[in-house]
Amino acid sequence: MHDEQSTQGDPDQQPTADPSSQEPTRSRAPEPLSAAPRPERVGPFKILGDLGAGGMGIVYRAEQVQPHREVALKLIRPGLVTGSLLKRFQLEADILARLQHPGIAQVYQVGLHEGAPYFAMELIEGETLMRHVIAQNLSVKQRLELFAKICDAVQHAHQKGVVHRDLKPGNILVDRSGQPKILDFGVARATDGDIQTTTIQTNIGQLIGTIPYMSPEQASGDPESIDTRSDVYALGVIIYELLAGRLPYDLSKKLVHEAVRIIQEDDPTRLSSIYKTLRGDIETIVGKALEKEKDRRYQSASALSADIRRYLGDEPIAAHPPSAAYQLRKFAKRNRALVTGVAAVFVVLVAGIVTSTTFAIGQARSRAEADEQRAVAEDAQARAEYEAANAAAINAFLTDDLLAAVAPSAESGKGKEVLMRDVLDEASKKIDSAGAAGGQFDERPLIEASIRETLGWTYRTLGKFGSAEPHLMRALELRQDELGAEHPSVLSSMNKLAALYFSQSQFDKAEPLYVRTLEICHRVLGEEHPDTLTPMNNLAGMYIMQGRYAEAEPLAVRTLEIRDRILGEEHPDTINSMNNLAAMYYRLKQYNKAEPLFAKAIEIQKRVLGEEHPNTLSPMGNLATLYMEQGRYDKAEPLHIKTLEIKTRILGEEHPNTLGTMNNLAYLYTKQSRYNEAEQLLIETLEIKERVLGEEHLDTLISLVTL
């Protein structure tokens, strides 16, 4: 799930950079090449002048007679020639000869000169990558288009079994036509089996490449850990530098071991903290390319270029931001002392809230937003301080501002349910002023959104739908403004608001939200992602309630199949889908399919959650209703009565779930011709529903019809 285009800023915003600050030595004036005199000829090539020098070789401008052309001729320094180096050079020449792509400098000829190997390659008349983008004043869009071509060239090399291992702006020239050309596969490593047998193995702990562009696994010095995804990481550093005008890590004046540690452990500076216009999809793309774990990166250069082109075409990208759980694990690992202290505070806070709600918010899922709040942090310490400030702001709002204001005295006699309502109502009053101009959350809208979503969902779980709606609507509005329409947190808010409308029987409002959420998740995340399955399950449940079984069944069956396979049968989401599908079979009077699903859901929930958990009570009530429809009253009545007793005690007699069970028990009495008992229970149920849910709510109408 991703930010949509509107959050990415102006695509023509032009970052600037000092060319001298980051430019590799390769692009500056040539250094003295060798104490030995420059040769007049090397093989059939006439030497015209110097082009540059590297650690292993000298590069000359040379002229070839047949065919007539100027070339770049690389000659290994004679004093460095050894038997193993000759093997490595021959391998390099063989590799380069296999690479035929407009984005890779072509090798024309290979040979030996006085015992030293050389190769002649395409001479590129142009500038190094960073000098080109700065000299041409390229926009962000133009830089990305250029970068996508570089990815295409790298992908070609990878398809030929070659990992470059030293990709950097200094090894990429841009010719006069604007075509990038990758140079210097001198540390390339072939990846297919035939070539690996002749590759000179790098010693463990030996670094080959340029440290600022090295992947974490390459910086470890283990050659066996390097594969094509190491080049993908280097491409991530290059695109970062192209957009931000600086490297993702400040490694200046760092010793090698400290630079390696930073690459392996520290998070890169966020792009949006340098240029706010880079926030959104492009930041997500760069972040995925720079993932420290290989499996979390783009798995190929083509996948990276495809997402770049999707972004440029205003299409949804395939990457999505790291999950909140993953970010929190990383944050905790980096800041153990801080997290331990904050966790202690939250254990006390959460314990108090759990006592007050007594399972009422058991079904609500919190979504941590650590990643969303770190946009302004520039290093690990700053991020830690920022997270602590956010935690302190929320903690202060909940404890100092709210709990202290509503805490009952010993003489008040307030019960737990009254205390919880007081907390929610007090929070509702205060959050408006906190989010207003000049309020404590005025410039932190995502914190306000998190609190509002928690308040709204808790109101909804307690059956206070009217109080829930303004909070859930505002949370969605705030997140859309900050993150765009396709961010995971926005989709979560959309799903919760749809669930509220569903609870209110406002299906005309719920359906488009569910459909929109499902469409985005399906397109961006794929069918089997957990965030896709949630709206799929909820939409199926709504169709079942509306009697639209032909639309509901494929969704319900598919959701259960995927969840059972991926999450396991004991996962709460799987049980939810199981209960949904069973409810549909019940409504279709396919009792032989519904009963085993209800029974299995109850058995698992009792074992995992306990008999009195709200998630266990739902299939219990459904199974009792199924028994009733089958005329098995001896099984239906005690199960209905037991479910009603637990719901009244746990949720309260005015909770919608409790009222539903009261109505079902009354209907059972009518089936048994026990009309006096049924009438008394239905009148009581109808009175509460009209007062709590309203006269036009579907559940109210059901009780009215039953009466």
The gist of it:
This protein is α+β, with helices and mostly antiparallel strands and 707 residues long. Helix content is 56%, strand content 8%.
What features would you describe in this structure?
The chain is built from 27 helices and eleven strands. The protein has about 700 residues and is α+β, with helices and mostly antiparallel strands. The strands form three sheets. A six-stranded antiparallel beta sheet has the order 1-2-3-4-6-5, with helices on one face. It is elongated. The relative contact order is 0.06.
Topology, element by element:
Layout lengths: L18 H4 L18 E2 L2 E9 L3 E8 L4 E8 L6 H16 L8 E7 L2 E7 L3 E3 H7 L4 H20 L2 E2 L8 E4 L4 E3 L6 E2 L2 H4 L19 H4 L8 H17 L11 H10 L15 H9 L11 H12 L11 H11 L1 H22 L22 H27 L9 H20 L9 H17 L3 H19 L4 H16 L3 H19 L4 H16 L3 H18 L5 H16 L3 H18 L5 H16 L3 H18 L5 H16 L3 H18 L5 H9 L1
Antiparallel strand pairs: 1-2, 2-3, 3-4, 4-6, 5-6, 7-9, 8-11, 9-10
Helix pairs in contact: 4-7, 4-10, 7-9, 9-10, 11-12, 12-13, 12-14, 13-14, 14-15, 15-16, 16-17, 17-18, 17-19, 18-19, 19-20, 19-21, 20-21, 21-22, 21-23, 22-23, 23-24, 23-25, 24-25, 25-26, 25-27, 26-27
Oligomer: single chain
Tally of DSSP helical segments: 27
Strand content: 5-15%
The major beta sheet can be summarized as:
6 strands, antiparallel
Low-pLDDT windows of residues: 1-35, 186-208, 337-380, 403-418
